[in-house]
Specification:
The chain is mainly beta. The chain contains seven helices and 30 strands.
């Protein structure tokens, strides 16, 4: 059975890899072996390219390969000799630009095709080619590295700094061309942020002094007049109330021009999830009164959507999910979604099924542009595969979600639950009422594949059991952090920790579906789902204290393939804090494969439990989109 699961997992990974690319995409390259490699078109010229840097310099070599058309388009061979020569000549110019970006302004790049230098070919002539693959050699001599010499910035007034050091162009520093381009953009952005929308660089003089190996730079900036916003026009949307759109833009005619205000307005409109496209179009010239018209161009998404999915596992049986949603229920981007899920379909007894019927409603900007109204209600029946408990009932919540800024979001809601549960402690009814507050601070540089930054999510969930008159609080903190080892972010140390604590009542006083467990993907890989827990008479009880930690070394070994060794640890305790009372601690380890696509890495992890318990597998396989955390 496990071999069958593994076989289907690998087949699924390969299928997703193929489907995530159009037919013209590159082959899947795993350690030099190419899978699904398309045959080159008839008449095309496959080639192999080799780079030589004289003298040898790994940093220069890496930058050249990253910029090279010959290198990055080697899987799509040119259609004829002329196209091959054209690609190689274009590459020479790109590589000169790459040398400039590293501060080399006296270097040379010479490409040879089948031993024939392009510079030696007569105009209009083509090289003679052997049987493919054709050998191409690119010889690069960077020459001396230049440093900034005399740098001047000419601009009116003293609002914006004219000190070259403030823009990375300090005399004596390596004169990378990217620093000059960045300085130009920073200067324009600085004036635009001060209300000058037409700011531009009018002169950029860059002179290389080869005798002294210095680069002199003279920049002149025309900030243009300060402006204020003029008429704001909303176009394109037929279903969303234009006055609602205007209220979210939060820009009024007469306000001093601000690019930050335009960007924030665009992001707020995109976050509504009701538009396919949001474009903020600024006029190219000012009105006679000094105002800048702004056009908001919108394209509606279809308001209604419907979908379904079905999954089957030899371990967990079948699962069926169906959903219906509306993105613009009353004309102000109100969202309603209804989900129905049935799982554990391995039995003919309906009581053995897990199911949930859930409805969620969100009204954006209900209490100010950054505060949404949120609500949900669900009927549920839970019966984990390990038969640790059975619970059914109703739960609901009503509250608000507030965006403090781009990185900080908080929610606060009132919630209630009426349910019945049967577990190792017997049968019990619960009637809960309370609050749920969460706050999330996200400084990751990417959601699907973070390589730097961190994220912290904390929740506090005080509840009262109306029937028994007791109160308790379920609290949890999750944190992830990412540290790149190299400058290219190809090797990243990633870590995750989670701490949970429930205090105010004993373990039976907490509904079993709200207790802490460990095991499974997103928790402790290698162990069965929710199988790491204290036990009572051999039956899982869950816990009131939780501690989890995961550590990964994410290594991108090729452009499309990554290898991730990892270790997961977890501790679940019957006491209110990890390590208090009856405690179970486990460790799992494994290795993962990542296939990088435009929408994020496809993940396949294989993990083994180092201390397996009853019902734990010999190994476990996990497949998903995006990194594990």
């Amino acid at each position: 059975m496990r071999r069958l699961v593994k076989k289907w997992a690998l087949a699924l990974l390969a299928s997703v890899a193929v489907l995530s690319h159009p037919p013209s995409a590159q082959a899947l390259d795993i350690f030099g072996f190419k899978i699904f490699e398309p045959e080159p078109p008839e008449g095309s010229i496959p080639y192999e390219v080799e780079f030589k840097v004289e003298p040898e310099d790994e940093e220069v070599l890496d930058q050249l390969k990253a910029a090279s058309l010959l290198e990055n388009q080697s899987d799509t061979p040119p259609e004829d000799v002329a196209a091959l020569v054209s690609r190689a000549r274009a590459d020479e110019q790109r590589l000169i630009g790459a040398l400039y970006s590293l501060g080399f302004y006296g270097g040379s790049v010479n490409a040879s095709i089948a031993g024939q230098r392009l510079s030696d070919l007569a105009p209009g002539s083509l090289p003679r080619l052997p049987q493919p693959p054709v050998k191409i050699e690119v010889v690069v001599r960077p020459g001396p590295q230049f440093r900034f010499g005399r740098v001047t910035i000419q601009q009116p007034g003293g609002e914006v700094s004219s000190d070259p050091g403030d823009y990375g162009m300090r005399p004596g520093r390596v004169a990378r061309s990217s620093l000059v381009l960045s300085a130009e953009q920073q200067l324009v952005d600085a004036w635009r942020s001060r209300g000058h929308p037409l700011a531009k660089i009018t002169s950029s003089e860059v002179t290389a002094d080869h005798a002294n190996r210095t680069l002199d730079v003279a920049l002149t900036i025309d900030p243009g007049p300060q402006a204020h916003f003029g008429e704001i026009t909303v176009e394109g949307s037929e279903g969303v109330d234009p006055e609602f759109v205007r209220s979210l833009i939060e820009i009024n005619p007469g306000d001093v021009y601000s690019p930050e205000a335009v960007i924030k307005a665009r992001d707020r409109l995109r976050a509504l999830e009701v538009f396919n496209q949001v474009r903020m179009v600024e006029a190219e010239r000012l009105n006679p009164d000094g105002s800048l018209p702004l056009i908001v161009q919108l394209e509606d998404r279809k308001p209604r959507y419907i979908g379904a999915s079905a999954n089957y596992s030899t371990v967990d049986g079948a699962e069926i999910n169906a959903y219906w949603g509306h993105r613009n229920l009353f004309g102000q981007a109100e969202r309603l979604r209804i989900d129905a899920t049935v799982s554990e379909l391995t039995s003919l007894d309906f009581d053995d099924y897990q199911y949930e019927l859930k409805a969620e409603f969100v009204k954006p900007a209900a209490f100010g542009i950054n505060t949404d109204f949120i609500s949900s209600a669900s009927l549920f029946h839970e019966k984990p595969d390990n038969d640790s408990y059975r619970a059914y009932g109703f739960r609901g919540r009503v509250g608000v979600s507030h965006r403090f800024d781009e990185t900080l979001v908080g929610t606060l809601s009132a919630e209630g639950q009426v349910s019945h549960a049967k577990d190792a402690f017997g049968s019990r009814d619960y009637s809960l009422a309370g609050l749920n507050g969460t706050i999330s601070y996200d400084q990751r540089n990417d959601v699907m594949n973070p390589t730097s930054g961190y994220r912290v999510v904390a929740s506090v969930n005080p509840l009262a059991d109306v029937n028994r008159g007791n109160a308790f609080s379920i609290n949890r903190v999750d944190a992830t952090a990412y540290y790149p080892i190299d400058a290219q972010n190809r090797y990243v140390l990633a870590g995750r920790v989670a701490l949970g604590s429930t205090f105010g009542t004993d373990l039976p006083g907490v509904p079993p579906e709200r207790r802490f467990y460990a095991g499974g993907g997103g928790s402790l890989r290698g162990y069965a789902y929710q199988n790491v827990s204290p036990r009572r008479d051999g039956k899982i009880t869950g816990g009131r204290g939780l501690a989890e930690a995961s550590f990964e070394l994410r290594a991108q070994v090729t452009k499309s393939i990554g290898i991730v060794p990892f270790v997961d640890m977890a501790m679940v305790s019957s006491g209110a804090l990890p390590g208090w009372g009856d405690t179970v601690s486990k460790i799992g380890a494994g290795i993962g494969l990542r296939y990088f696509t435009a929408i994020g890495p496809i993940r396949l992890d294989v993990a083994v439990p180092l201390d397996p318990d009853k019902d734990d597998p010999d190994f476990a396989i996990y497949i998903g989109l995006g990194q594990s955390f």
